[in-house]
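Escalation from tier 1.

The customer reports that the assembly of two entities below gives different structure tokens on two consecutive runs. Tier 1 could not reproduce it. I'm attaching the input and our single run for tier 2 to review.
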Amino acid sequence: KKTFEGHQVLRIIPKDDAQLSLMKNLEDMNEFELDFWRGVTGVSMPVDVRVPIHNLESVKMYLEAQNTEYSVMIKDLQVLLDREQEEMKSAARA
Amino acid sequence: SQHRNTDSFDYSSYHTLSEIYSFQDMLVAENPNLVSKIVIGQSYEGRPLNVLKFSTGGTNRPAIWIDNGIHSREWITQASGIWFAKKIVTDYGTDPTLTAILDNMDIFLEMVINPDGFYYTHTTNRLWRKTRKPNPGSSCIGVDLNRNWDADFGGPGASSYPCSITYSGPSAHSESEVKSIVDFVKSHGNIKAFLSVHSYSQLLLYPYGYTMTPAEDQAELDSLALKAVTDLASLYGTTYTYGSFFDALYQGSGTSIDWAYNQGIKYAYTLEQRDTGTYGFLLPANQIIPTATETWLALMAIMDHTYQNPY
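Tier 1 run:
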């Protein structure tokens, strides 16, 4: 079973066409192993992306180097998944 | 399977595929004069593609199609589908609007379009979106079923790369999960509304996605969308953005509603349920019923308009 300890979901809002283009490049980069939850659409439209823990630092540095602001939407994905799993088990018991 | 009937079923929890299949059978058994189950095909891994038919009689009546779970990780959609099914049997005979619709039209509901992907989200990878069909020549698995329809197939907004989450597949309708719906809708020939339920983003979208050219019925689709999102917001204040797929979201080719619209099904909409970016695909279970309830108001607005405006 695949787990997601330490994976974060980042929210990035491209502010201009240059940042939009940067996000599109990011979408095509396989090396970061990114999973786009909400894809790149347009300027001011949020992009949500799951970043594996081993690439978090690189991705954040990449964004910061390009002056692209981001926020952490989900701090540790596995925590939420564990909670969901526990709720399902509890409901099944009930 | 541990639930004895659909009254005691826990609608405020996420359920496995086998529990959903059991629910469907219970609902049919409890309401033999209203609900029947049609198996329209099989998924790649051999799971049945079940559609519930809600009908009060007649032959080949005009009908409404609703589907959930084309992207398997969007769990709120399959959970809402269960709630919709129960809502239909509960409200028929008590809610005058739904009763009038069902006295004249049929409703077809496919709760889990992508059962292989859904099963995989429960067993192996909670965040899986596509099917589970291997792609020859690639180590990457699966096709994005909402890029596999014959509507500018393979155009901008879809990927020809099997590892992409928007991989279109090798050809239009190559996936049995899509082909089964296409064959069913075509052979029925009297579907008047085609409603696809997704999450997350809180959007109500109508054709087109593959082109910025407005649909012929854009004005009507747009005003109906406004009515639907207004009704939806009346319950909890949840705000939806609405517009054409192209304008309100992004360019996407090979999508289900564009195909449906080009088949002559005028009322073709995609809904994107809660939220806008707190939980994403991990919407807490305590939001299932509120989300389904508000979504139902939008669906009812579209279904009632479809009934009131025959074409």
